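Why this split exists: single-chain examples teach little about how molecules sit against one another. For that reason, every record in the complexes split bundles all components of an assembly together and asks for one structure covering all of them. Below is a record exactly as it appears in the raw files.
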Amino acid sequence: MLDYFLITLLVLMITSAVIALETRNLLASVISMGAVGLLLSIAFILLGAPDIAITQIVVETLFLIILIRATVYRDPYHMPSRSQLLGGIAGLVAILLFAVFGILMFAEFPALGHSVLDRVADAPSVTYVAQGLSLTGAGNLVTAVLLDFRAYDTLGEATIMFCAIIGALVILRRKARKSVKEKDEESDVI
Amino acid sequence: MSSERKPDPTPGMSLIVKTVTRWLKGFLLLYGIFIVFYGHLTPGGGFAGGVILACCFVLLTLAEGQRTAMKTLSKNAASELDSLGLLLFLALGFVGLLEGAAFLKNFIPTPVAAWFNLVSGGFMPLANIAIGLKVGASLFVIFSVLAALKATEKKEDEVPK
């Protein structure tokens, strides 16, 4: 079951990536890249890596906003003004969803002053705290988890950051190149 | 960035800011390097230290103007440092694989006698350096690229007048 779902996600991801490469519209390309990131974060959740999924979706959202601002910075797309009623209903639904999920989240919290670790006796975190120093020899347990126990996570985060920055560099460089060509010289710093 | 009126010979901010920056930048760099190197002993690590290192160069750019900052660390050099950091981290991972253990295995032994020394925690200080290099350089690259974009936008807006 999981395999089929993952294969579907993979196919969707590849399709989005191909669309991002092939489309002539820069905005559509950026949004397709965002779709790839979103599907990738869903895949991370299914594979049992929630912290990478959170990093992925946060970085993806941030860079999507930056890229859209960078590519369509003159706002050529005017949204037709819909009726106020629809926007109000959408806002209400959003607030309602936010409230429901917030209440659910606070109900799940342990009491103030108790750690989450108390709830799950054999969680890996218990091992990290108890034997982190003897297993890794690092005084800072956070770094021990980041670079030893969960080094794959760190590698994934660094890779996500690297890819996001390469993408931003490519999109922003074309604009700078064009204006440099128009002006011939004077701005060799860029 | 520079003022809009005339291309003055000394871009950047006022003399006060420049002087303070000149005094502070060494300490800032040192602090960032400290955070990276002592990441396995004290709070901090590659990510936090890298951000501090990037902030040092961002401060330099804001105070002295982009031209001077690019002389210190050009965008291409920062981009190469970015790639170098990630490659270094990957190489550290592959060393563990070559030793016969798993990928990203802590391949340097961690004797009890070395606990809480600077050289402890196996390959963690090295990995922290790699991550710090990567994060710092990439943040500076993003900042300088966006600053350059802003500058060209401004020039494009000024041309039709």
